[in-house]
Design a protein that fits this description.
Helix content is 14%, strand content 37%. It has 150 residues and is mainly beta.
């Protein structure tokens, strides 16, 4: 099985998503050391990775969702359960994506302890299934991992 392009890394209080193609970049990170007077975590944004991988032995597809914190996981779950977002993503994906492993990095703005609706960005083209939410956004920042499934 191929190596995943996007993985998670943690050092002290800081967690980030590593891009195998750009390993020194830490654009997709959160700092778990920022808290308010009550000790609650202060996050302005969170990130998640959605992975769609074919098992080479069974040929079945497995989809995983993991956020750096819960808001990213929630935003990714919202993205996956909205048929309009999936349709918009499929329209922007390269030909033959159905037979490839793929990963999507999701960014969500955290406002009043909630994650926003999903929007999809691929190669600078914004795809929005719904009108943009004024208060919060969820953006697909990077997409299709290279290589066929298996």
């Amino acid at each position: 099985m191929e190596k995943m392009r996007f993985t998670f890394q943690r050092e002290g209080w800081r967690s980030w998503i590593v891009d195998r193609d750009h390993p020194t970049k830490r654009d997709w990170h959160i700092d778990m050391n920022r808290t308010d007077e009550q000790g609650r975590l202060l996050l302005n944004e969170d990130f998640a990775v959605i992975s769609r991988v074919e098992n080479p032995r069974t040929r079945r597809i497995t989809i995983t969702v993991a956020g750096l914190y819960g808001y990213g996981t929630l935003a990714a779950g919202k993205f996956l359960t909205d048929p309009a977002n999936l349709q918009a993503m499929a329209q922007r994906a390269p030909a033959g994506w159905q037979a490839r492993n793929m990963q999507i990095v999701i960014r969500t703005e955290v406002i009043q302890e909630d994650a926003g609706p999903a929007h999809c960005r691929r190669r600078g083209v914004l795809v929005s299934a719904n009108p943009p939410c004024i208060r919060s956004t969820c953006v697909l920042l990077a997409s299709i991992a290279s290589g066929p499934g298996g």
